[in-house]
Amino acid sequence: MSLPAHLHGVTVLDLSSVGPAARCSRILADYGATVIKVAPPPRKGGVQIQPPYYAYSAQRGMKRVQVDIKAPDGKAAFLRLAATADVVIESFRPGVVGRLGIGYDDVRRLNPRIVYCSTSGYGQDGPAAQRAGHDINYLAVGGFLHCSGRRANGGPPIPGATVADSAGGGMHATIAILAALLRRSTTGAGEYLDVAVAEGVLFFTSLYIDQHLATGAAPGPGHDVLTGRYACYDTYQARDGKWLAVGAIEPAFYKSLCTAIGCEQWIPHQLDDGRQEEIRAAFRAAFARRGRDEWVADLAPGDTCVSPVYAIDELAGDAQFRLRKVFVEARHPVHGTFTQVGPLMAGIDRSASAYDVPDSTHTDTDEVLRRAGMDQQDIDKMRREGVVA
What CATH number corresponds to the domain at position 288? Predict the structure, then answer.
């Protein structure tokens, strides 16, 4: 007999379409929460981004309602939903939900158990609170970009993934919500969560920030082993032009690596600052003798901390990922069948190999509002007036 999903019975209202809040609700849905995406009707949604059909796992396992929360009847409908929900997630600019009459205080009056999570770039207060921003901005102010390797022109790199949105915001919000739900199970009371993406980035760079605060050091690219100071933690190009990542930090792993690639003379000099460029030159020459996958086949099993730098189209065929069932099939009513990244977080049932996903024009508005206790005649009236869709 299988156990119910971790968050079975938890209802989440998500007012976002993209970004950290959408990442958060994706995780909650994968853990079994009933996530209801709340969007404006098409003619009211001019500023809300409509992501591609495949983005955010194509909203698998979620419901969708379209409500104009700026209209009095639409606001009342949203509050009706919030009165019986467990979680509300929003990502408007600070202060907006309060002006709309759907903020934490408005919902709490109807539902004292609500866990209300606001995600924003810099938090709900402070001199930066009203600044617009995106992933690169939060990585910039949090020190992440400064501590990353430089481009040829000396500037910080553009990261290859939305680290701030996904983890600094999305996972940050998820952890906070789960902790709040756990506390609510004891106290019976909900709470307000102010998730600042930039502060989530500070957690990523806290090793370096704490070093600065404790010692006065000024960490940056190349200041330590994890930011490129030593040849044992770097990337190298193979003969076929593809790249390898080397993370042989521990002396035993470094020794195994040097022995395997014919660089034994450099074993005693792993942390010798004066010899690092020589070691890098020797490593570059060694790795240039063979193709990337040849090296990986020989080195990866041998405690050398070597891995391939995959392009996206390569990792989709990786045997480890396939065996772990990280990819699933999705069936879309318009775009047909395609493959997507499945539920990944630990503890989630990975037995499902296929999911039906909705078209962007599909809504569950009538069903969801009826379950919240609204009369069908009232719903029909709002639909005629363009308040719901």
Answer: 3.30.1540.10
